[in-house]
Write a structure and sequence with these properties.
The chain contains 16 helices and 19 strands. The chain has 462 residues and is of the alpha/beta class. The mean pLDDT is 95. The structure holds coenzyme A. Coenzyme A is lined by residues 16-17, 19-21, 24-26, 45-49, 74-76, 79, 98-101, 129-131, 161-162.
Length: 462
Amino acid sequence: MNPLYSLFNPEGIAVVGASREPTKIGHLVLKNLLEYGYKGRVYPVNPSATEILGLQCYPAVSTISGRVDVVVVSVPNVKTLEIIDDAGKAGAKHAVVITSGFKEVGNVELENELVRRARRYGMRVLGPNIFGYVYTPARINATFGPRDVIPGNVAFITQSGALGIALMGSTILEGIGISSIVSIGNKADIDDADLLEFFDEDPNTSVILIYMEGVNDGRRFVDVASRVSLRKPIIVIKSGRTEAGARAAASHTGSLAGNVALYETAFRQSGVLSVKSVEEAFDFVKTLSWNPVPEGERVVVITNGGGAGVQASDTLADDGVFLEKPPEDLATEVKKFVPSFASLANPIDLTGMAPEDWYYRSIRLALANPAVDAVLILYCHTALTSPMGVARAVAKALEEVGQRKPISVAIIGGAEAYEAIRYLTNLKIPAYPTPERAAHALAAQIRYRRYREYLVKRATAA
Ligand code: COA
């Protein structure tokens, strides 16, 4: 069994430093744990309190009679070593250390001692300097971030705390379903590679997103990521790409951001999809977690606007995906219901007159055609057709054919377009406000497919 199994599936969690004060971190973590619905036992630990949030409070972990697998630590740094000793002796397996004031401010010795002590008891340390972790299958939200994370299949590992907390909120807004969010902060012990190994085996996770400032053991990361990428896409937002960014990372989590080119090469070799921005990462997460992996690279673009089609074609080409003529039988079928001046090359331009029914019929035909591997749909809002009508047409066609192919949708326009995007998002159909973003997110799936093929070949050759 993976050594982190009991971190994500604990029988009991103790919150050490569970404050009586509603605005303190220890109190908020306890509240999130209870309100998000963790089914195991929760034990507040605070020597100055008898009861917190309706639960009996314990003076120390060692005084709890039930089994405690995880100890969440939210007391000042000077007290952390005694907590580790107490929890370790009590048989806890994992310390989730929220406390700051370690390597990131030069307190290297304290951080090293924390890990040394934990190891003495066979305990693993998550953090320090973190906002906690979430694992939705066990209804664990041991963070002081937002509570109502949407359950889903994306695991998110973040080295940045505050940004990670904010992104937790963004996943809710963006409709991205989460299996886990893990704040890893200073990575004194548990690091990206350890978590990748856990998520590789985790049946609840199918895509892994990492916000990374730096890795401690590059060789191990490449080895593990290469194995995991064979089964699950890994997306990395690597920050500290510039000299200014690298300086900021060093003072943030004490990480050495390192040489950009080295990281990029390592990512490519291990099949990792490297992205520059949070927006790009979330865009990729949607196609990669909601769509199946494409069987091939034959993309058909369906649009009602030539310009949108050109922009999408350019973006795809920039990403190394080149459009070929659509299959002849598809063009012949579409020709039956579009005007004579419609272009039936690729992009298939249904013309500015296109009503939602033309979208429905052409998408249905493209999805059902065996010579099409993925479909990109672009709709520029005109007075003739409502964005919601087109969104419904997309959903209907997908439902009738059964989603066996990747799809990406751009609905370009104003407020009504956003409403239609939201509608599709709720159905887990990747939808974006621009042709470039929709095309780029679809191309990410093809990039992943290529990486995977390369990794399979490399593994078989070895
Ligand atoms: N065991 C258990 N609880 C203890 C304790 C012990 N040995 N000693 C003290 N406590 C209690 C305190 O009495 C207090 O409870 P109370 O408010 O009911 O009196 C509670 O633990 C918290 O201790 P306190 O000294 O008030 O600390 P704090 O809550 O102000 O700060 C941290 C603790 C961990 C939040 C703070 O030190 C810290 O590191 N903050 C930064 C966290 C952060 O940003 N992390 C990275 C996020 S991205």
